[in-house]
Write a structure and sequence with these properties.
71% helix, binds fe (ii) ion, Hypothetical protein af1432, 16 helices, mainly alpha, 2 domains, disordered N terminus
Length: 403
């Protein structure tokens, strides 16, 4: 430590080295966990500043506390890095309105920004860093004492300022695009949605927690909008489904071949929630058709996909498989069984396939690719909901009383 001169350029160089090493650590970690190359961090270039700041902080603390015992020193390292992590998390949430990482599922976390487990990891890394890595860097990075240090440091500062400005601008753009997606998701075409998500790909891969947050925000938004809409048309739909008439011609034309198929008619023999599967899929299909028509989506595919979404010919309550909970097994497996049946007897398009495969989302983890699939998954849940069924029965009884 003694030969460290108080030279700003020297520390700038150390900052650059350790930001770069931090980037390498994160790239390896992210690329392994996500099984593809991921450019980690929010900067465009190969630097993650939080590691640079953390390293400089640890060097300073070691300078102050080097005479202390190891355990209190480790606690100081852990605390200091936790404070830095908390502050960076706090400011990125306040300034950029982005949750870049989220520990809220970890035990002993504080606002999801820091957690005990990671604080212990940081303390251990700080120890490894100051004991093994930093001395080797000091020995080998001879340029730290060389004639070009000043030039290199100034070049780095200029580069860093440009990258930082560029990255902040792209994060602002990112936020705007995400806000746009939240509000316009249902009115955007699939191509437009994909285009926007593709343009945001780097940051979404760099911060998987952020990606999860965006997905849940989008789906909540869709859920709210669809629920409001469902409530507003509930009355009309109940009346029409009650009488099962008159089906709009275009609706009937879209589903006729399926409805008349002898294999499909077998669904009448299998019981579902409160009626046969046949009744259930007819309800979901008509309901989804109405919603998709209103939203100007592909209502034809929606009706056909919805009709086939539970195309499984077994009674799931008697269908047991050893070692697997029957209900859970059925919940996860039946979309693929329905899809196999649908493909066997009918020719189905990509949207219909997605509808059948993803209708149990979020139980099946991959989110729907098409808006139509979202609608069917919500319509399915909505029509199975107690509230709706009670209302439905009440109206039917009223109708029977009158007639
Ligand atoms: Fe289902
Ligand atoms: Fe269903």
């Amino acid at each position: 430590m003694a030969n460290i001169s108080i030279n700003i350029f020297y520390y700038v160089a150390l900052f650059a080295i350790y930001s770069f090493m931090g980037w390498i650590i994160e790239v390896i970690y992210r690329s392994i966990t996500q099984r593809k190359f991921v450019n980690a961090g929010f900067l465009f270039g190969p630097f993650i500043p939080i590691y640079g700041f953390g390293a400089l902080f640890i060097i300073l603390l070691q300078y102050i506390f080097h005479g202390w015992y190891l355990v209190p020193r480790l606690i100081i390292f852990g605390l200091a890095l936790t404070v830095i992590e908390y502050m960076v998390g706090y400011f990125s949430e306040k300034i950029f309105k982005l949750t870049l990482w989220d520990y809220s599922e970890y035990k002993f976390n504080l606002h999801g920004r820091v957690s005990l487990l990671f604080s212990i990891i940081w303390a251990a890394l700080a120890f490894i860093f100051i004991t093994f890595i930093h001395p080797v860097v000091l020995q080998n990075a001879t340029f730290l004492n060389g004639a070009y240090l000043q030039t290199a440091a100034i070049a780095f500062i200029i580069y860093y300022a440009v990258d930082y400005a560029y990255s902040v601008a792209s994060i602002t753009e990112f936020r705007q695009k995400i806000a746009y997606l939240y509000t316009e998701y249902l009115s955007l075409s699939n191509v437009e949605t994909e285009k926007i998500l593709d343009s945001l790909q780097r940051l979404r891969y760099a911060f998987p927690d952020l990606n999860r947050y965006i997905n849940s925000k989008i789906s909540n938004n869709i859920k709210n909008r669809i629920n409001t809409f469902l409530k507003s048309i509930q009355d009309k739909i109940i009346i029409e489904m009650n009488g099962r008439k008159p089906f709009e011609d275009e609706y009937y034309e879209a589903i006729q071949d399926i409805c008349e198929h002898e294999e499909f008619l077998k669904l009448k023999e299998y019981f579902h929630h409160n009626s046969s599967i046949y009744e259930h899929v007819q309800d979901v299909a008509y309901f989804s058709y109405r919603i998709c028509k209103f939203l100007k989506l592909d209502y034809r595919s929606a009706a056909r996909g919805a009709l086939l979404h539970d195309f499984f010919l077994y009674d799931w309550r008697n269908h047991d498989v050893p070692d697997l909970h029957r209900k859970k097994f059925h919940g996860i497996e039946h979309p693929m069984i329905a899809l196999a049946n649908a493909k066997k007897y009918f020719s189905i398009n990509e949207i219909e396939e997605d509808i059948i495969k993803k209708h149990m989302w979020p139980l099946t983890l991959i989110p729907p690719k098409y808006k139509e699939s979202f609608i069917i998954s919500f319509a399915d849940k909505y029509l199975s909901s107690k509230e709706f069924i009670n209302e439905f029965k009440k109206r039917r009884n009223q109708r029977l009383d009158i007639s």
